[in-house]
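User: Sorry, folds how?
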Amino acid sequence: KLDGSFSLCIELSDCRRGFWHIWQVIEVKEKESYEVKLAYKAVGWSNNHIMLVVRDAARGWFVLNRAESLLPSEGWKITVLRFKVPEGTHKVRISFYQYLPKDYNPREEKWSSSGAIWVDSVSLRRVK
């Protein structure tokens, strides 16, 4: 049962000036497919949200895949993200990324969003 007592909790306030992403680098085998699976609960978001993103760790601009947004939820939800490792990639960076719309302007008060996301049961496995 997930109750958050052993979960990573990320609390944010006024996202205009702070958090953009939290990440971990993991070694992978090129040309293999992987699946990231995790449980999460997100509360309090109004103007933005968090995405799960997988990038080539050496070439940060090279996105391998991005998950659906981890939108606010009443309880725990499971999200799964599959990606294939291209040739030349030996490490990936799995990130929780703050998504902001294209019309985002940090000077506008309406983007002063806050919230929390709890993350638990994160796994990475090779899939066929």
User: Anything to note?
Assistant: The first strand starts at residue 8 and ends at 12.
